[in-house]
Amino acid sequence: ILFIEGADGFIPKAIVKKLRDADFDIICIPDHIDVISDHHREAQMLLYYLPQSLEQPQRTMPYLAELCRNEHKTLSVAGEPFYITKVKELEDSAQIHSFYERPIDIDELVEHMIDLSASHDEFNRLKTILVIDDDNDFLQVIARWLSHDYKVVTLRSGEEALTYLER
């Protein structure tokens, strides 16, 4: 799990400790797009603990949504109810799998992460379909249609496809 720390404090530390106690490998990083970019390949699940401001999530969320969309990662968001409500209003909020509002039931969060991890394991056993198109709406529709039975990778250009295939 890539734990993106938008806020420091007791709750984020408790979440990380409980997830580690549940045998998750946790990579804690600050809420900076450059740092996320350096580490995003190390985890299938992202947990973003929101800062108590709206500026940073407005920059970070589009990037995280694109990562999740293109690389089949699961994004969960935790934080104060006010900021979670504001994040839900953002254009890219549809990519968020789970929301955890304070006061957070950390044991419940860990159970959800265990379930998500199992679904990622199952998902990775599916066959993969690569869809390339410059129309983002089309890519989203086709990915939704096919994602129940296949792992769907959507890319916007032939150049992206070649880079993806090289990896």
In short:
This protein has helices spanning 10-21, 33-39, 55-71, 81-88, 106-123, 136-146, 158-166; strands spanning 2-5, 27-30, 45-49, 74-79, 96-101, 128-132, 151-155. It is of the alpha/beta class and 167 residues long.
Helix content: 40-55%
Q: Tally of extended strands?
A: 7
Q: Total number of helical segments?
A: 7
Poorly predicted regions are none
Strand order, biggest sheet? 2-1-3-4-5
Walk me through this protein's architecture.
The mean pLDDT is 92. It is built from 7 helices and 7 strands. By secondary structure, the protein is of the alpha/beta class. Helix content is 49%, strand content 21%. Helix 1 packs across helix 5. The chain is globular. Strand 4, helix 4 and strand 5 form a beta-alpha-beta unit.
